[in-house]
Every structure is written in structure tokens, then in C-alpha cells.
Amino acid sequence: VTRSALELSTEVESIQHALFPTRSVPVPDHPGYVTYKQDYFSIDCEDPVLREHLKAYFTDEHSRYRDGLYGHGDSIGGFLEMTAQQLLVTGNSFYIIDWDEVDIKDRKYQFPVDFGYLRNETMKVIRKSGNIAGYRQKYSLFTYLKESRFKDYDGKIKPRSYEFEKDEIVYCQYPFATKSPTAQSIKYLSTIKRFWQFGIDQSRSGVEVENCYLPLEKARYTTFTKEKRKYDIARGKIRTIFNYLMDVNGPKLTQHYDIYTVIRYKKFLNNFRDYLVKEFNEQVLAVVAKKNSFGCIPKLKYEGFINNVELDSALQKYTDATLSFDQIVEQIIKAA
């Protein structure tokens, strides 16, 4: 699946970076200048002091209280996007939480100080009575470091494995299907690859006119339009699986279907954001509240995007012809 994801990098990376994109914000004191922000997030908490401390640690883009908590880029938006990438490719995502004491304005907390990526292939979910009870990892660098030496058992090396408690891992599953979009799309990649190879063979056949190699002979008597149609159908099915936009060089679409695919894509992004934020609240902030005996459970919130109700309403108005094509493009399609 991971290797096949390279063939689907346009779909995977486009969705990943559209979830919480870095946006340019004008600088009030310097007309013509912009700064780049990813400030979609806030913390909802009844205690104002605690809310300010949680904001300073978890959501401030340039926090001085954390050091690489979220990995590359050190932003919560980037962390959620990396989680989304793994869900789009493998369907599962595992991060180990490293906890430590953090001092914020003379208050000491038990906070996550690192989210360490764990390879999906090495992880297994332990369930009891249908509920997640913990996790087990095998054959990994982490288990090697945790178990400094391995005992022999009947002359064989003991398999390296390590079990994690439930609150030591942030675990997510692709929420919209039992298989990841990449796994669902693999069956269409052979058609995609055949079209690319056809393009090479057709070019060679025009240059090497005396070469009677069978693929070149077939390419000479096959029309580009026929092969392109097969490619467009396969690519369209892949884009539908990913809920992504159709290829601009693909088959011609009606204006209504073109608008529909954009609305569908924006709703999919909203649902994906909701899922990622919900899991962060339940698996990180709820555990933070428990470990620190908070009187309330803080919640991560995000804003800055058109919600699904507004998207559905706009599409219905366009369908009813009460909203023109230009109006829906300006009000909805070009907006966040």
C-alpha cells in the first residue's frame, strides 16, 4: 500500500495540505506585507488561567514552552495533517505519547512532550470485549531500546515485542471506510500505468519506424483518444474514492457536476477535520485532564472554514437557480 501511495501522491498530498493550510495574513503595521499563519485552533476550558496555559502549550504556533512536540514544523495543524496522511495511505495511525513535567508560569503540569511515530506494520490493537485495551508492537527500534537484552527460549531468540497502555498511544483509523482510499484505489493503478507506458511506446514508435517490437506495433495502431478515455475513467474513480476534485484535463463535466464535486470535497475536508480534532480531544486532552486532576475537560476547537450546512445550502440554491454560477464561485468555491 505504501509503495502504491507514490502513484497517488497528488490525491494524498493535496488533501493532507488542504486540511489546515498555511495562509497569508496582511500585516496591519506594514501595508503590502503578509505573515504566514496556521492559527485555526483555540482551547475551550472553563478555567481562564488553565485555558491560557493550555493555549500557550498546545496551540500557539511559536510556543516557548514546548520543543518539537508535534515534530517537523511543530504545529498542531501539521501534526493532524501528518496523521491524515497515514490514514489516507494505510488506514491507521499510531503515535506514542512521551509524558513529562512542564512548567508554565510557575504551574507544573504533566503534559505530552513528544509524539513519536510508530510504523503501522509493527502495531497491533489489543481488544477486550470489543473495546481497545492497549497496543502491542513487534520488531521495532523502540522495542529494541526498551528491552536491552533478549532471553533464549528453547534455543530460539525471543521475538521482540512491547505492550503499551491505552493512554500511551494516539490511535486513529480512517473514519469513512473500512479500507484506506489508497488500498481501495490500487486496482485502478494498472490502467494508469498502462496509459503512461502507451505514451512512451507511441513516442518511440514514431521515432524508431523500423522497430517491430510488439508493444510499439500495438501503439502505432491504437489511438490516443481511446487510451486516454480508459485513463480518465480510472482516474475519475480514484478521485471519487478520495472525494477529491476531478482532473481539469479529464472528461468534460457539466457546470453543476463540477460545482457538486467541489462542495463534496469541502464537506469531506470538514468531516475529516472534525474526526481528527475529536480524536485529539479524547485521546490527548482528556488524558491530560485526568493526569492533572483538572476540574474540567478542555476541548480543542477550530474555525475558519465554511461549514457543511452552509455548503449544502449554497448547492441547493445553485440547483434551484437562486444562486448564479459566478455567485457560488465567489461565495463558496474561492472561500476557505
Kindly summarize this structure in a few lines.
This protein is of the alpha+beta class and 336 residues long.
Helices, strands, pairings?
Blueprint: H1 2-5, H2 9-19, E1 23-26, E2 34-37, E3 41-44, H3 48-59, H4 76-89, E4 92-104, E5 107-118, E6 123-128, E7 131-138, H5 141-146, E8 152-153, E9 156-157, E10 161-165, E11 169-173, H6 181-185, H7 189-207, H8 214-220, H9 224-241, H10 255-292, E12 299-302, H11 308-319, H12 325-333
Antiparallel strand pairs: 1-2, 3-12, 4-5, 4-11, 6-7, 7-10, 8-9
The share of residues in helices is 40-55%
Query: Count of DSSP E strands?
Result: 12
Give the biggest beta sheet: 3 strands, antiparallel
Over all CA atoms, what is the radius of gyration? 25 Å
Explained architecture:
- This protein has 336 residues and is an alpha+beta fold.
- The chain has 12 helices and 12 strands.
- It has helices spanning 2-5, 9-19, 48-59, 76-89, 141-146, 181-185, 189-207, 214-220, 224-241, 255-292, 308-319, 325-333; strands at 23-26, 34-37, 41-44, 92-104, 107-118, 123-128, 131-138, 152-153, 156-157, 161-165, 169-173, 299-302.
- A 3-stranded antiparallel β-sheet has the order 5-4-11, covered by helices on one side. A 3-stranded antiparallel β-sheet has the order 6-7-10.
- A hairpin with a 7-residue loop joins β1 (23-26) and β2.
- α2 runs antiparallel to α4 (76-89), α7 (189-207) packs across α8 (214-220) and α10 (255-292) packs antiparallel against α11 (308-319).
- The longest helix is centred in the last third of the chain and has 38 residues, at 255-292.
- The radius of gyration is 25 Å and the shape is globular.
- The two termini are 31 Å apart.
- The relative contact order is 0.13.
- The model has no long low-confidence stretch (mean pLDDT 89).
